[in-house]
Amino acid sequence: MISRVDTINLANMSALSETVYVPSAPQVKSDIASLLSSKLSAGEDGQWKITTFQTTPLISTYIIAWANGPFRHLEESYSSPLSGKTRPLRIYTTPDLIHQARFALDVNRRVLPLYEQVFDIEYPLPKLDLLVATDFTIGAMENWGLITGRTSAFLLDPHQADLSGKKYVASTVCHEVAHMWFGNITTMEWWDTVYLKEGFARLLGETIILDRLFPEWKLRPAFITSELVAAMTLDAKASSHPIEVECLDANVANQIFDALSYDKAATILRMLSQYVTEEKFLKGVSIYLKKHLYGNAVTKDLWQGIAEASGLDIPEIMDNWVKKIGFPVVHVTEVDGGIRVRQDRFLETGPAVPEDNETIWSIPLSLLTIDGSGNTFIDHTVLLDEREKVISLDISRLFKLNAGTVSMYRVLYSPERLAKIAEEAAKEDSILSLGDRLGLASDALELAKAGYSLLSSTLNFYKILHAENDYQMWSCISSGLSSISSVWFEQPDIVEALNTFSRSLLIPVVKRLGIEYADGEDINTRQLRTVTIGQAARAGDGSVIADLVRLFNRAIETEDDSCIYPDLISTTYWTAVRYGGRKEYDAVEAVASKPPTPQMGNAAMRALGASTDRSLQEETWKFITTRARDQDLYYFFAGLQGNHAARRFLAEKFKTDYDVLYKRTASNFRLQRLVQYSFEALSSEMDYEETKAFFKDKDTSTFKMSLDQALDSIKARAAWVKRSSEDLRQWLASRT
């Protein structure tokens, strides 16, 4: 690599040599000398250098990287638990950001030996660097030996970091380091099995291995409300696709980096791990990797490795999960001496017609039962591998399918049985785990959306859980209430009644915890405060809003961001813009323009979409089209989409400026998500027809999947409004 002498050169491998260019030096190759001689200006002798790097192992071209810039770095090292060899680990940034790089480097140092132990394969390169890029198309990229990523993926200010930012950086680092094995040392044969790297990096990097580094974060149940819900949300659409999808050109390849290749893949692998046991699963993964070192692999190679470790017929269990579209809902009917369970494909629009309901999945049911002494037992071996079957059990006692919510299916109980399970879930000493309770809450919402149950039943379930004390449950409930309000966003009487209900659940928790954060508080208390204050502000609670505005004004007056607790930055910025005016908007815009930290910048960009003032919404759109970096467009679009008063404004602006946005973003992943943000949250049949008509004469080849999914979302939301409005109004009216 040829560069200025005062800059840093980086590549996948370590540098072998670095010399200042001298025209007469005999070691300079003639082609390099000729190139430099043609570029040098008078007096530039001694200002260029030549860096030669070690040769890489056999490597895929998509993970090759090199970089040059005025970088600074922090350095650590780790010793391989397999060989004892010590390798340097560095993180590179521009000089102004280096003070925020320590946490990512520490995570890298801690996680590398864990991966070596789990896979029984030593990291093969001589070093592993992280490089922070100011503007980056995606979150991060697993370039072998030189992992690259945007600022929010790797930077964390130790004095201004909230837990969500810390989690994001840690999970990104662990995800990308997982790729050093999944994708780099063993590579999928073609992009149709991209899940072989992305599903594993999601599951191992962001849950199983990260949980070993930070057990206090309770990442295993958190998987349910992030990865599992994301997978089911997309896979419940008619426009979904199998995990393993035919990939004939680059347009398709770019579009399958979605919640199916990542989250559904991680979900079914997690399900398989539970079924065969995690120990045997990881052993099988190690066998798979070792058999395909520096080579390519396909799905059957993975199944063979896990089959060898477990002694089970893995393809028989797993093939339909990978090769077929969708996932099932299991209907539970109580009969003499047990239950009859039946599987059908779950669609967000309602029961599937016969031609869409042909797949039979092998479903690990994970059946939880209770014996006469009150002891719980979970049978992980029960498979539903036919359309329906009868299972013997004592139905006079509590039972629950999908214990821990590990398998990818929804469960439809009778209203009477669900009431008994909900009663148990609401107990302070419930035998149902956090994972069970999260799964029940998720099912309650989505089954109502698809018309399998009443929406009023979902709200009653939320009400029963009012004494819940785990922040993940409150996050799930808050998300559910926001989702319902979002669907009925143009019916203000329903939105306000839902907000009133939300406040009735949240305010007792907020009053008990207060708005002050104390040193030494446990994570659950801090996050419970963060979640409930955030939702209470969005539900319009005057006292909470006043407290947040007070914190914001103090920060503006003193020019000291530390006046705002890091965990409340997002909510405080949003509240200031939502309930303030030009002064508050300008203050948040200043943060978005020149953010002190990536997390604060992201929060500010989202918050700029929160105003109900059309002139300020126009200001935000002007920021998007003239000042926002391409990598940050998502944050602005998400903020506008989440604002009921700006949602149609966003859709119309996208249409008006479509040609500009297309030219700016069609060549990368961004346009796909911008299409979804702009249209997926609309809720009428007219919206569906108008959106479809708008794109009719457009070249949608680079974002067709995203467009189809957005159209399906509109259709499902419109059907939900039509189906459930009367039930919802009656339930809300009964509370007054």
UniProtKB/TrEMBL annotation:
Binds 1 zinc ion per subunit. Zn(2+) binds at residues 175, 179, 198. Residues 103-321 form the Peptidase M1 membrane alanine aminopeptidase domain. Keywords: Aminopeptidase, Hydrolase, Metal-binding, Metalloprotease, Protease, Zinc. It is an enzyme of class 3 (hydrolase). Its cofactor is Zn(2+). Transmembrane segments: none annotated. The active site is at residue 176. Residues 398-716 form the ERAP1-like C-terminal domain. The record marks 262 as: Transition state stabilizer. GO terms for cellular component: cytoplasm; extracellular space; membrane. SUPFAM superfamilies: Metalloproteases ('zincins'), catalytic domain. InterPro entries: Aminopeptidase_N-like_N_sf, ERAP1-like_C_dom, M1_APN-typ, Peptidase_M1, Peptidase_M1_aminopeptidases, Peptidase_M1_dom, Peptidase_M4/M1_CTD_sf. GO terms for biological process: peptide catabolic process; proteolysis. It comes from the Eukaryota. GO terms for molecular function: metalloaminopeptidase activity; peptide binding; zinc ion binding. Its EC number is 3.4.11.-. Belongs to the peptidase M1 family. This is Aminopeptidase. It comes from Phanerochaete carnosa (strain HHB-10118-sp) (White-rot fungus). The lineage of its organism: Eukaryota, Fungi, Dikarya, Basidiomycota, Agaricomycotina.
